[in-house]
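Kindly go through the entry underneath: sequence plus C-alpha cells. Please state briefly how this chain folds according to its C-alpha cells.
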Amino acid sequence: MLFRSVTRFNASTSTQWQDVSAELAAVVQTALDISEKSGGAFDITVAPFVAAWGFGPAGRAQELPGAEQIARIGASIGFRKLHMRSDPPALRKDVAELAIYLNGIAPGFAVDLLADRLLALRVGHFMIDIGGEIRARGRNARGEPWHIAIEHPVDTQRTPFAGVRLDGASVSTSGEYRDYYERDGRRYSHTIDPRTARPLDRAPGSVVVVAASTALADGWATALNVLGPRDGLALAAREHMSVLFIERDGEGWRSHSTPEFERYRVRKGD
C-alpha cells in the first residue's frame, strides 16, 4: 500500500490534494519534521540530484552536472514544495514535477511496522535488521542483551569500532565510506547535500543514531551526516538525541558523542 501510494503520487501532475495511505502520510510527516529541524539537510524530494551526479539507476554520468542543469532540476525539488494532511491522509505538491523518494527513511519505517506486528503478537524478544536499520527488544537466544556492532567507516575489511546495547530502541548508521566514485582526483559521495545540490566532499566518516523508532534513526542519520560532525553534533545536543560521530584522525579515528548516546554504549565487561 505504501509504495503504490508513492507511485501514484509521483506519476500525477496534479497540484491538488491527493489521497494516500495513512502509512505514507505518517512517513512523509516524519520526513518533513526532520527536514524542518535540520534546516533542509534531509529532503525526500532530492533524488533527481542524486541521479544527476551518477548515483541513480542509470549509473555513472558521462559528464558532471553544470550550474544550468542543477538550476533546472532544482526548480522541481524542495521539501517546502511538499505538503501533508493527516485527516483524511493526503499529500499535495506545489509543482507538477515534484516526486518523493523514501530510500532515506523507508527501510527504518518498514522495521517499525514489523516490530509493531511482533509486539501485537506479544513477541517480547526480537531483533530486526533491514539494510542495516536495526531495532531490538528483550534478549537474544542466549538470554543476553542485544549488542549491535558499529563498524569502522572504511570500505575494506569490516571491523567493529564500538557497540550499542538495545532494548526497545533502534540504531542507524550513515556514512561516506562505501558508495562513492573518484574523478579527476576528487571524491564524489552518494549522499547529496540538498542545500547545495552537491555530493558531500569531506573525509570519510560516519554518524550513528539511536532512537525510539527506526524511521527516526534512519532519517536523522542521513540528516546529521549531511550536517557533519560540528553542526550535526550541535543540533543533536540541542535536540537531546543519542548520536555518535566517527571521523578520521590522521592514521586513526576519533569519535564525539552526545551524553544521551553513552547510556547505550557497550562497555568492557558488558
